[in-house]
Amino acid sequence: MTTAKTPATAPEQPRPSEVPETTALLEQHTIGPIPASERTGTARGVFGIWLGINMLPLTVITGALATTAFALPFVWAVLAVVIGNLAGGVFMALHASQGPRLGVPQMIQARGQFGTKGAALVVLVATVMFLGFYISNLVVGAQSLQGVLPSVDPTAAVIGAAVLSMAITVIGLRLIKLIIMVSAVAIGLLVVASFVWILVSGVPDGALGAGAFTTTGFVSMVAVGAVWQIAYAPYVSDYSRYLPADSGARGAFWATYGGSVISSVLVMALGCLVGAVTEGDDVVGGLAALTGGLSTTVLLAFAGASALGNAGNVYCATLNALTLAETFRPGWLPGLRARLVTSGILHVVGAAVALAASGGFITSFTNFITVLLYVLVPWSAVNLVDYFLIRDGHYDVDAFFAPDGGPYGSWNIPALGVYLIGLLVQIPFVVLPMYVGPVATAIGGIDLAWLVGLAVSGCLYRLVAGRARPTEPDVRVAAAP
User: Fold this and answer.
1) Which of 90, 212, 222, 377 is deepest in the core (most CB within 10 A)?
2) What is the extent of the structural domain holding 207?
3) How many domains does the chain have?
4) What is the mean pLDDT of residues 417-439?
5) Whole-model pTM?
């Protein structure tokens, strides 16, 4: 059900008789503010979500880069993983603390910095990135399943995983949260068991010390860990927006930070170990070979986690797609029907791309996602500086949905200018297979683009914020409908 267009500057909320009870099976809310009466989420639940989100074979493959692509010894590889995730997790979790205060999805908040139409580009990039995560997990999940059951048709595996994800997404965030929390416990125990199995079975002499420490390899792996965390920034508030406004911000930060960093480090460390011991770059196959009799359980669990947890990627992609649609239909507040239709379309499109993927798809798609991350880094810096240093968390949330953008306008030119500069300054530092920036080349191929983008965008926005802010001070937080 969708509501009519608004007559003035704020979206018309459903009348009390039209608002389903919070116990309804299907989640009713989409991009609108969550009413205070339904802010029943807990920090423990948020921690469980973020503990489970990273329990995927894709995380293992990412961790293995340290000992394969960057040829670091195991200890140095794990240290780089820890440092990168600890650093990147701070930026990501700071975004999570915005959800309880404002009660809307993460990318809706971008309108407070860039204007209602100015934020559209960032929302589009985030939508494509989340859909990319969904596609990547379909491909890697199918590979995990085939590692156990070679006779399984990969087409059937992808379609089955997509259907399962769609069924979960239909219910909404409550079921997604429950499934990911259960997955966190199950996969976490299996990851620990895999560590023990590999170490007890005997690691070949010299395997853990193979390779050599290089500054380029170490800093590059730190960047991988940091960017892995920052990639979540565009949707962390999607999961924390159901927390109470008066007490949820601090809990959202620590629950998100702790859950995501712990799970990322644990699973990436397993990838470092598999990469160090296995010859070649078939990480999933190497994990199967190293875990022996445990391999069937591990790979089946990973395949299941990829299918079940993938619902979270499409859920957030759906919210972003609806945000983008509302940009061009101001005042329209999408409801349950719009969420289901949009989610169905995204599932079909993602599955079609996954089915068409070639053998080198993961590598090519990872490079594509990396480019999108470069695009999102300046947004993250501008958003955090505006929220914490300029406005201290005070926004007129109703104005986010106003046809004219209210005090935020349709286009915030100074903020968009800072964003553009934040993109441009990263180019000399970029490290990609198809292009390496001149500065990155001069310093040995170290990728510092993300760090430069954050620093320059944040500092520059702080300098121009006086002009970027609306003329009338805005201090009203969204009232519960």
Assistant:
1) 377
2) 38-363
3) 1
4) 93
5) 0.87
